[in-house]
Amino acid sequence: MGLLNFIKRIEPDKDKHPFLHTVYDGIYTLMYVPEHTASGGTHLKDKIDLKRVMFTVVLSLVMAYIFGIWNIGHQHFRALGKYVGLTDGLHLKFAFGIAKILPIFIVTHIVGLGIEFYYAYKRGHGIEEGYLVTGALIPLIMPPDIPLWILTIAIVFAVVLGKEAFGGTGMNVWNIALLTRVFIFFAYPLSISGDGVWFAGLTEAKAGAMADYGWIEHYIFNPIFNALGWDTFQAAGTAVVDGFTGATPLSLAFTGGWDNVLSHYSPSELWYGLVPGSVGEVSKPMILIGMLILLLTRVASWRIIFGGLIGAALTAFVLNQWGVTPMMQVPWYYQFYMGSALFAITFMATDPVTAAGTKWGKWVYGLLIGFFGILIRVLNPAYPEGWMLAILFMNTFAPLLDYISLQSNIKKRLKRAKV
Amino acid sequence: MELINIFLKSAFIENLALSYFLGMCSFLAVSKSVKTASGLGLAVIFVLGITIPINWLIDHYLLSENGLFGMDLTFLRFILFIAVIASMVQLVEMVVEKVSPALYSALGIFLPLITVNCAILGGSLFMISKELNFSESLVFGLGGGFGWFLAIVAIAAIREKIRYSNVPAPLRGLGIAFIITGFMGMAFMALMGIDPAALVGK
Question: Which of A167, A198, A316, B90 has its CB 3.0 to 4.6 Å from that of B165, i.e. a possible disulfide?
């Protein structure tokens, strides 16, 4: 308990240094569970507060993070035609991935938490923990080479207008991480969509382009690897191999159907995530591990997850039967192999703040997310992937679903009461 | 199939409230509770569903060159359309007052103000510019009304949900409603670009 005593001793005075106290309080409650639990008329009297719940989500994302970091490097070297084997150049791939993801992670947290701290101090409430999950999710849904200034603008937009304007954590109507992404998607589309952006560290993601490393690789990782006698990053003379297009599975499927995807990637590559894409979405087994953690700890609602999966499967199955465009003919079970279907349903749709809250509402919410996600992906030529927009669309209607559910329950009970 | 296509398009993809931002005054003013919002939404569905076909008839048989008068009277469109809309709204007002006095008092001035609801006149003018035929214009009216109904009910549910939220004081009321409308428009961009005609092959 030495650390606890030390932390208690340095508590700043609330009246003299209000801002310092806000920061202190936020960090203190993150490290230690609150000393007092609810008592009296409430039913729940344990120490599982919001921070513990949020942290479970962050933990369930760790596997996706590790795989995503490796995959950034793997995709980069695959485009260059070097270290094609899965275990070749492992240290280079991880180092490259870390060099890409760390700046995104740091900027996300500095900007987001900065706004959070400022508002907590200005409005005189404790620092709330909603940003823990948002901040962990945002790097996972970005392309590895996203310009940091664009990221900053998008986070400011999402956190200030999407969350603080509505009153802070727990009050937002739309998912903050998705608002960040949708802002970039509409305001700076070239940096987040298309075939070229999913391969990091190339001056231009197409055949003949040269590898391009920053100071982190040159001045931090290279000396270390040199000292250890391992391979180092070599920028000069490494060009992208011939025949490289950088096309993602979804854009391949949209133009030429499932056969076109198979001519570039095998189903097991798609399943294990050896494909270009946003950092966290690629590896399906890692996402399933996260899903399992969330389901076992009951942090995520199983109704939403299964509703989403069933809705997507049914919609894809019906479109299979219809089958007039190449994308419609993609077998329905392979729709889950491509893109961010599983990731979005597991981590984005289940956000308890923006999802529907009633049992009936959760089912309908999940089913409709699955329905719209597949519908946008398959039918909308403007967007290659639909889950981000499908979830924002259903966020809009979640309060309505809850309202309908509540009203019908009230009516039912009134009827029972009269009898 | 063509009719389903038009219905889906006018209700979801080219939503009058959230893609064209028409009918904003009542959209923002009457969306404080779901009950009154759905009442107004139903009234708008009814008025749109009736006025657009009637305006189609007027435009086609009275104003166009091969109409009753044999000359191009399309410069009278606005005034005649508004006259039709005003009389239809009178009808709705009488019906609502008779059937549901509570809703009538809740809607207040905004019921007669449907007359000047831009979504209604906008619907009629879209009908002209899209060159729909009679049955298509009926479906277009109902679809557009349904989309507007959906939008106002959804924003009303959101505003009921955030009633107890700690919204910053300067934003309370209309301010946050504007922000919500913007985000809803962003969410509705999900469907923009979908062509239901693609369902039957290109």
Answer: A167
Residues from chain A that touch B177, judged by Cβ atoms under 8 A, are: none
Query: B190–A173: do the CB atoms touch at under 8 Å?
Result: no
pLDDT of B65 above 60: yes
Q: Categorise residue B72: left if φ over 0, alpha if ψ from -120 to 50, beta otherwise.
A: beta
Q: Do A166 and B161 touch (CB under 8 A)?
A: no
How is A178-225 classified by DSSP, letter by letter? HHHHHHHHHHSGGGTSSSGGGSTTBSSSSTTPBB---HIIIIIIHHHH
CB contact under 8 A, A186 and B165: no
Nearest Cα of chain B lies from the Cα of A390 at a distance, in angstroms, of 7
CB-CB neighbours of A108 under 10 Å: 25
Nearest CB to A403; choose among B160, B162, B201:
B160
Task: Report yes or no: B2 and B138 within 8 Å, Cβ to Cβ.
Answer: no
Q: Does the model's pTM come out above 0.90?
A: no
Task: Measure B113 CA to nearest chain A CA, in Å.
Answer: 26
Shortest distance, CA A275 to any CA of chain B (angstroms):
25
pLDDT along chain A (419 residues), means of 10: 72 72 71 63 64 82 90 86 80 88 92 88 75 88 90 94 86 91 90 80 70 80 84 73 76 82 86 87 90 89 93 92 83 86 91 88 94 88 84 93 92 86
Distance CA B59, CA A186 (A): 39
Nearest to A382 among B165, B168, B192 (CB): B192
Measured between beta carbons, the chain B residues lying within 8 angstroms of A179 are 183
Please state the length of chain A.
419
The DSSP 8-state label assigned to residue A209 in this structure reads: P
CB contact (8 A) between residue A171 and residue B194: no
Euclidean distance between CA atoms A310 and A292, whole angstroms: 17
Cα–Cα distance measured from residue B29 to residue B156, given in angstroms and rounded to the nearest whole number: 10
Find residue A211's DSSP bridge partners.
A202
Cβ-based burial of B202 (10 A; exposed 0-12, middle 13-18, buried ≥19): exposed
Closest-approach residue (CA) in chain A for B179: A161
Best probe of the B interface among A125, A388, A396, by most B CBs < 10 A, is A396
What pLDDT does B202 receive? Answer: 47
Q: Kindly write down the DSSP assignment for every residue of A299-367, as one continuous string.
A: -S-HHHHHHHHHHHHHHHHHHHHH--STTTTS-GGGGGTSTTHHHIIIIITT-TTTS--SHHHHHHHHH
* Count of CB atoms situated within 10 Å of the CB of A370: 29
Per-residue pLDDT, averaged over B106-116, amounts to: 77
Q: What is the pLDDT of residues B151-194, one digit of tens each?
A: 999 999 999 988 888 888 888 888 899 999 999 999 988 888 77
